[in-house]
Amino acid sequence: AQSVTQLGSHVSVSEGALVLLRCNYSSSVPPYLFWYVQYPNQGLQLLLKYTTGATLVKGINGFEAEFKKSETSFHLTKPSAHMSDAAEYFCAASLGGGYNKLIFGAGTRLAVHP
Amino acid sequence: SAVISQKPSRDICQRGTSLTIQCQVDSQVTMMFWYRQQPGQSLTLIATANQGSEATYESGFVIDKFPISRPNLTFSTLTVSNMSPEDSSIYLCSVDGGELVGKYAKNIQYFGAGTRLSVL
Fold first, then answer.
1. pLDDT tens-place string over residues A99-112
2. Strand-pair partners of A10
3. Contact status of A100 with chain B (Cβ, < 8 Å)
């Protein structure tokens, strides 16, 4: 069965520091992978996605993620955190190809302090 | 940018009543989804709604409790019936463009802002 695990329910970084949010998936076939961000009292916004092709994908707001099949991982990074990055981040996976059900990780709350 | 509107944005309801949530999208889409996000938790898929067919419910969710309509390619409703305090959650609509040529891509879900429901 497909599952998504996010390591660390809370991550705290200093402004300007590297952001690393971890995501591992379990799937019998390589899934489509997504990172979404949820700001307080808002819906989910798509940060970036991996479907096929280049394994390093760049998203909005300076975020990027790398699909590593051998490690079944899709970690999200940003070189320099900004105060506005404070939010909840969700990793999600689907099998694509018309089977579009999204499986979400538990989420990671990112705090950015001065 | 994506324009997926949900109404109401929030509501406070009494136990035993029902609430219908609307989801309107600005371009035709094949698939619409309804999720529940309980306080402090992740998202759980309630059902998938394709136009012209019955909604497909996930394990643990039933049509009598969460009836869904999908009358056309840009609109869907979710009703939360006979509410109890345990139904207090955020309910989110999402869309996938599917095979339709339009604003929304295939195999990617775009979300509305959600409906924040509190049941007293």
1. 578 899 999 999 99
2. A109
3. yes
- Collapsing DSSP states into helix, strand and coil, what is residue B91? strand
Contacts of A98 in chain B (CB under 8 A): 107
Q: What is the pLDDT of residue A99?
A: 59
Mean pLDDT score, B52-59: 89
- Residue-wise pLDDT for B93-119, tens only, equals 999 876 666 677 777 889 999 999 999
Give me A12's structure tokens: 């705290």
CB atoms B107 and A45 under 8 Å: no
**In Å, how far is B74's CA from the nearest CA of chain A?**
18
∠ CA A98-A100-A102, nearest 5°, is 165
Q: What is the dihedral of CA B4, B10, B13, B16, to 10 degrees?
A: 30
Best mutation target, B111, B116, B118, to test chain A (most A CBs within 10 A): B111
Whole-angstrom distance, CA of residue B23 vs CA of residue A74? 31
DSSP state of B53: S
Give per-residue pLDDT as tens, A13-66: 999 999 999 999 987 777 899 999 999 888 899 999 998 888 999 999 999 999
Could you give the 3-state DSSP secondary structure of residue A84? helix
Instruction: Give the residue among A79, A52, A51 at the shortest CA–CA distance from A63.
Output: A79
